[in-house]
Amino acid sequence: MPVNSFKNYFLSWFPEKSALTRPCYLSIANLLEKDIRSGKLAPGTKLPPQRELADYLDINFTTVTRAYDLCRERRLIYGSTGRGTFVAALPGSTIDENSSSGLLDLGMVKGFDSVSKPIIEATASVLQKGYLEKLYRYTASIGHLHQRAAAVNWMKKFAVNADENHTALFSGAQNAISAALLSLFKVGDALAVDPFTYAYLPGTAKLAHLRLIPVAGDNGGMLPQALDECCRKHRVAGIFLMPNCANPTGITMDIARKKALAEVIRRNELILIEDDTATMLPDKNYLSFYSLLPDETLYICGSLRYLCGGLRITAAAFPERFRADLLNGLLHLNIRTSSLDAEIMTELILSGRAETVLREKHLLAQRANRIFDRIFPEACDCGDGSFFRMVGLPDTLSRQQETEALFEANGVRVQHSGRFAVSSRPGKNFLRLSVSSAGSEKKLKEALLKVRQVLETLPGK
Fold first, then answer.
1. DSSP state at residue 424
2. Looking at the whole model, is its pTM more than 0.90?
3. For the chain, where do the domains classified as CATH 1.10.10.10 start and end?
4. Which of 147, 240, 259, 454 is deepest in the core (most CB within 10 A)?
5. What is the third-level CATH fold of 100-111+356-456?
6. By the 8 A CB rule, do 50 and 68 touch?
7. Are 302 and 157 in contact (CB under 8 A)?
8. Furthest-apart CA pair in the chain: how many Å?
9. Burial level of 16, CB count in 10 A (0-12/13-18/19+)?
10. What percent of the chain has pLDDT over 90?
């Protein structure tokens, strides 16, 4: 008899005991394969420990071991030392959290990751290079010289004229922001931000013991006079801005607003973190804050984040006054950029594939935004190349978790404005809906229609 009755005991997989035949190990292996291929056990599922499964089935421990070994040979499962045994992705399949959960995804902005052919081509080119071994040596925490040179040339397209000695590579924009907050500011410093800002900024600022002060804005971005007043009241040390298609509002500043804000930033001697999320190559009139305030600005090149979600790489340009503190912070935080990712980014830039990828994604974004506009014609315009859009919510949907759960119950994943709010009472509620993550235009349309249907069935509608 089993030691444990398992009536109130959780196992991630309960094979049917009555279905077991001899030889028992082969029967277990076949049942496991059946449940994996049917989707009952999703990729990444942790399987029961062998002794617990043996106890449940009332069989010898070695029988389960043989069954697991056979499934490893079939490449259905894999083991991780110290962690356990997990279901593997089937050959030719992908691990898709949304398909396994049955949810349509309008939450995380994934940036049309289906545009992968140029990325694969660039990766293949890198793997054929004769100096690949050198990339894996324990050097160049800020990126190899030729990689930084490629980033410098790329950032020039965005009116950022830096050099290799004032450029560093980071493992994504979030890591660049973390390094900046922890190395350029002192405990207790205040940073001016938009009322709705990058979702992970408040948490990172809390870890760095910094205060975020929301500054009023309008449809053109943060208001210069409001920033000036904020500086007088709170002794602000720095400011965080996303001047192009700000996340989550989608607001893009015009040149006049940038120049007016730059004057306030200069006058109040603020440190500026410019997270530039422009996804396309700008026109000749493009103006970065870095070009206006080169001695005050840490410029984070957000366009590189949209090349490929799996490439955790971005470049940042900084003035000489930030150099020692920022690079020292990078060193002590151990946010070391993957040499392979950095080399793939370099290959994408130098081969021209980076521009090709972003242009293709821009076209997909235009098509996705047209679908959105047909379903939500009343929504604010964020530009035809935006990867996400906003939909207003009634006051009754002010709670983030409850609102997101409501839409998940109707089959679609969304993100509530509460995720991005700096204060507990930001003054308005909305959904930020990704138009770049559904996987296809058909699924995008289906998901948006579900959102519309939920909103129309709310009380008072």
1. S
2. no
3. 17-87
4. 147
5. Aspartate Aminotransferase, domain 1 (3.90.1150)
6. yes
7. no
8. 82
9. exposed
10. 57
What pLDDT does 264 receive? 98
Which ranges constitute the DSSP H helices of 223-288? 224-234, 255-267
For residues 87 and 41, the answer to whether their CB atoms sit within 8 Å is yes
Beta-bridged to residue 392, according to DSSP, are 430
CA pair distance 163, 161, nearest whole angstrom: 7
Give yes or no for a contact between 356 and 394, defined as CB atoms under 8 angstroms apart: no
Residues 87, 47: contact at Cβ < 8 Å?
A: yes
**C-alpha to C-alpha distance for 346 and 314, rounded to whole angstroms:** 11
Task: Out of 1.10.287.180, 1.10.10.10, 3.40.50.1000, 3.40.640.10, select the CATH number for domain 117-351.
Answer: 3.40.640.10
Beta strands per DSSP E along 271-378: 271-276, 297-301, 314-317
SS3 218: strand
Question: What whole-number distance in Å separates Cα of residue 326 and Cα of residue 298?
Answer: 10
Question: What b/e readout covers 30-41, taking b as 16+ CB neighbours within 10 angstroms?
Answer: bbbbebbeeeeb
DSSP state of 135: H
CATH architecture of 17-87: Orthogonal Bundle (1.10)
Q: By C-alpha distance, which of 304, 311, 314, 315 is closest to 355?
A: 304
Contact 382, 250 (CB under 8 A): yes
* Two tokens, residue 262: 């730059």
**Alpha-carbon span 337 to 431, nearest angstrom:** 33
DSSP code for 413? E
Other C-beta atoms lying within 10 Å of the C-beta of residue 286 = 16
Please answer whether residues 184 and 316 qualify as being in contact, where contact means their C-beta atoms are separated by less than 8 angstroms.
Answer: no
> Given this model, what pLDDT does residue 189 score?
96
The answer to whether the Cα torsion of 434, 386, 157, 127 is positive or negative is positive
Residue 2, pLDDT score: 47
Main-chain dihedrals φ then ψ at residue 174, nearest 5 degrees: -60, -40
Give 192-246 pLDDT, tens digit per residue. Answer: 999 999 998 999 999 899 999 999 999 999 999 999 999 999 999 999 999 998 9
* Helix/strand/coil percentages in the chain, nearest 5: 45, 15, 40
Nearest Cα residue to 144 out of 130, 131, 162, 158: 131
Q: How far, in Å, are 171, 272, 345, 436 from residue 118 at the CA level?
A: 21, 34, 11, 18
Pick from 386, 451, 447: nearest CA to 112 = 386
The amino acid at residue 335 is I
Q: At what angle do helices 353-375 and 441-456 cross, to 10 degrees?
A: 30
- Separation between Cα atoms, residue 232 and residue 267, nearest integer Å: 11
